[in-house]
Design goal:
Elements lengths: L10 E4 L2 E4 L9 H6 L8 E6 L34 E8 L12 H9 L19 H9 L8 E4 L8 E3 L2 E2 H5 L3 E3 L2 E2 L6 H9 L8 H10 L3 H4 L1 H8 L4 H24 L20 H17 L5 E5 L8 E2 L4 E4 H5 L5 H27 L1 E2 L2 E2 L4 E6 L15 E4 L10 E10 H11 L18
Parallel strand pairs: 3-10, 3-15, 4-17, 5-10
Antiparallel strand pairs: 1-2, 4-16, 6-7, 8-9, 11-12, 13-14, 15-16
Length: 446
């Protein structure tokens, strides 16, 4: 292989660590293209979830089409307006009771990516459907080291009853690999980092982990020799990009260590603390940065990210909202509560904007990571006070490698299933399905 030719699958290795690389110019050389099926940057698909619905008047644009104006809650997305689709009217019928009584929060989460009615049980007989992310992962996941990545801020129980007779697994999970098997999310940034960069940590004992953490060994120290060898083969532009990338990995390591400083590490697995960051905002942003690394290095192309579990009653005191999120979502149209709900909604959108900015900063060929992705953001509840599952707050950011026509507010026909959008997204990932969940066809025109 010539000096300036590099396989897209190149990984830096060393002493229990592996570091996948971002897209480099050397990966577009003729020989590199012949060595991999990726003649162009791959397309990615990410699903971001927020609980308890939104304050709809501050969310929905007043006009449709390309001339729409972002309302107050969506203003943080102004830099990405041309890469955004805002949907109004999409519905999750299978999140409705349909004869099963109370339990809207559990159903909202369980149906969000599956489009299926969850079986009402608080025992082990859980059943809903395969989620759209796992449908995609089954087809494209073999091309990456991780078939998919599931992350979030709140872990939640996987057993017991959490909402009006519904098992906790329904409100704690977005991703389902089979109708009976959720794919639990990882909430600890250190463990997400280890999954991305540590080789074989799944079998690491508590003693071994404690010893490694005491050494504070950076993954970059472990792959230094491989990095030096690679550096000699790269052109000036790629050497600069590689240095910037490795610096960002090390900085993320430092932030993760700083966020969990003072917490015990040398403990048995059964008693190991979560080591979660001290603040909710920092937790979200660490996970955003880890997600961007996973996507930019083609470690995975499919991910789900839960900002909080459905029905979450997290306090947002740092915003001047000391009440629980779920509590104030039952606002009864009281002006004070509506104002507080809007603050929470806008904060979530700000974090989504942060993620989109990080994706846009990663250059790939003639575009960037955001251009080559589809990032869906939304909730399985429309207005938290009404517990409705129609007119859901749904956004789609990114251009799917040029296959999505963005920059519009789209009003769909009443009772259009969200699953129709999923079928269209799958098609843009070259995954063709006859239907998904309660879909009635593709969502045309996106």
């Amino acid at each position: 292989m010539n000096r300036h030719e590099l396989d897209r699958r190149t990984i830096l290795r060393g002493a229990g660590a592996l570091v996948a690389l971002p897209f480099l110019e050397a990966m577009t050389a003729p020989r590199a293209r012949a060595a991999t099926s990726d003649a162009e940057p791959p397309r990615r698909m990410v699903f971001v979830y927020v609980p308890n619905g939104v304050h709809v008047p501050a969310w929905r644009p007043a006009t449709t089409g390309t001339d729409y104006v972002l309302p107050a809650t969506l203003e943080p997305l102004a830099p990405f307006r041309d890469s955004l689709l805002v949907f109004s009217g999409l519905t999750h019928d299978k999140a409705r009771a349909n004869g099963d009584g109370p339990g809207d929060h559990a159903r909202a989460s369980a149906a969000f990516l599956t489009g299926c009615q969850p079986f009402k049980t608080d025992g082990t007989s859980i059943r809903v459907g395969v989620s759209v992310d796992q449908v995609a992962a089954a087809r494209v996941g073999s091309a990456t080291r991780l078939r998919s990545l599931e992350i979030g801020v709140e872990g939640g129980a996987q057993s017991g009853q959490c909402d009006s007779g519904y098992a906790c697994a329904y409100s704690s999970n977005l991703s389902w690999s089979t109708p009976h098997t959720p794919s639990p999310k990882e909430t600890d940034p250190r463990l997400v980092f280890d999954r991305l960069f540590r080789d074989g940590d799944a079998d690491e004992t508590a003693e071994e982990r404690a010893r490694r953490l005491r050494r504070r060994a950076s993954v970059l120290d472990l792959v230094r020799d491989d990095a030096r060898t690679l550096d000699k083969r790269l052109g000036a532009a790629d050497r600069r990009k590689l240095d910037e990338y490795l610096t960002s990995v090390r900085e993320l390591e430092r932030r993760i260590e700083a966020s969990s400083s003072g917490r015990a590490n040398g403990v048995p697995d059964s008693a190991r603390p979560s080591a979660a960051p001290a603040t909710y905002a920092e937790h979200l942003r660490l996970l955003c940065d880890l997600l961007v690394l996973a996507l930019s290095t083609d470690t995975t192309r499919i991910a789900t990210f839960s900002f909080a579990n459905e029905g979450s009653n997290r306090s947002y005191a740092f915003l001047g909202v000391p009440e629980g999120h779920h509590d104030i979502s039952h606002h009864g149209n009281e002006p004070d509560k509506l104002a507080k709900i809007q603050l929470v909604n806008r904060f979530h959108v700000e974090q989504f904007a942060y993620l989109l900015g990080k994706l846009r900063d990663v250059k790939e060929g003639d575009g960037d990571l955001l251009v080559n992705s589809m990032v869906l953001y939304g909730s399985g509840i429309g207005d938290g006070n009404r517990h409705n599952h129609d007119d859901l707050p749904i956004l789609l950011a990114g251009r799917g490698g040029g296959r999505v026509t963005s920059g519009r507010h789209v009003q769909v026909a009443k009772e259009t299933p969200v699953a129709n959008l999923f079928v269209s997204m799958l098609e843009k990932m070259d995954v063709t399905v006859a239907r998904h969940g309660d879909s009635t066809g593709k969502l045309e025109g996106i």
